[in-house]
Write a structure and sequence with these properties.
Layout (H helix, E strand, L loop, with lengths): L7 E4 L5 H12 L3 E6 L3 H13 L4 E5 L5 H15 L4 E4 L14 H29 L3 E6 L15 H18 L4 E8 L14 H9 L13 H8 L10 E4 L3 H5 L1
Parallel strand pairs: 1-2, 1-4, 2-3, 4-5, 5-6, 6-7
Helix pairs in contact: 1-2, 1-7, 3-4, 4-5
Length: 254
């Protein structure tokens, strides 16, 4: 069953990690896909190639989500290529680990501008297009388990992910009358480029695995099912919700 047959899906941060997995997963479920990416040209091209190999159309649009102009351009390019926007997956994010007391101002500002401001502008631009189309739509934002728990070296990151979670709750209220559903997924520890250096320490990785009831850390592909479900008509009465995808880590920490 292809849950996104005939849909157009836009994914930010789509060249690597969770965004790439979501983009290819959406294509497997019948969607045409536009990805936004910041710097990885080769990875963006290979993602587009994988989608096209599945028989779906794809484009890659380069741009920094921290720049408000990027959101409008990305949505416009998606409409130009595919005629409409049915689903936005707001995924782009960074997490440069750093101690709290000497956290550089530039690191704090950049993290907020990418993770929270970037999500806000992308969600707003996509919503405007969906309202103009007049047929509803879906927005899925990638928050984090970090929206619910703290992190010693993530004092700049956890507030942004809590903000993304809150943004989806408020947007669900603001956009419900337009038939637009807004939900978030909250990944646990997923093996991506964001944390590959942090988890290069075998002892730390083993410790993180030991805190997860399912006994392993997540892979980007573990987010595909939850994102596709929330984007599909199977979730047509789900909005303002947050879905933990963490192997049980959050409940274990309680």
């Amino acid at each position: 069953m292809k849950l996104l047959e005939g849909k157009t899906v836009l994914v930010t941060g789509g060249s690597t990690g969770i965004g790439r997995a979501a983009a290819i997963g959406a294509a497997r479920h019948g969607a045409d896909v536009a990805i936004n990416y910041a710097s990885s040209d080769n990875k963006a091209r290979s993602c587009v190639a994988e989608i096209e190999a599945l028989g779906q159309r794809a484009i890659a649009v380069k741009g920094d989500v921290a720049d408000p102009a990027t959101s409008g351009e990305f949505i416009a390019r998606g409409v130009e290529a595919f005629g409409r926007v049915d689903v936005l997956v707001s995924n782009a994010g960074i997490c440069p680990f750093h101690a709290f007391l000497d956290m550089p101002v530039e690191t704090v500002d950049r993290t907020f501008r990418v993770n929270l401001h970037g999500a806000y502008y992308m969600v707003q631009a996509a919503a405007r297009q969906m309202v103009e189309q007049g047929e509803g739509g879906v927005i899925v934002a990638v928050s984090s388990i970090s929206a619910l728990v703290g992190g010693e070296f993530q004092t700049h990151y956890t507030p942004t992910k809590a903000g993304v979670h809150s943004l989806m709750q408020s947007a669900a209220i603001a956009l419900g009358k337009h038939g637009i559903r807004c939900n978030s997924v909250l990944p646990g520890t997923i093996l991506t480029e964001i944390n590959k250096d942090d988890l290069a320490d075998d002892a730390k990785r083993a410790y993180m695995e030991s805190r997860t009831p399912l006994g392993r850390l997540g892979q980007p592909e573990d987010l595909v099912g939850p994102i596709v479900f929330l984007a599909s008509d199977m979730a047509e009465y789900v909005t303002g919700a947050a879905l933990l995808v963490d192997g049980g880590m959050f409940v274990n920490l309680q």
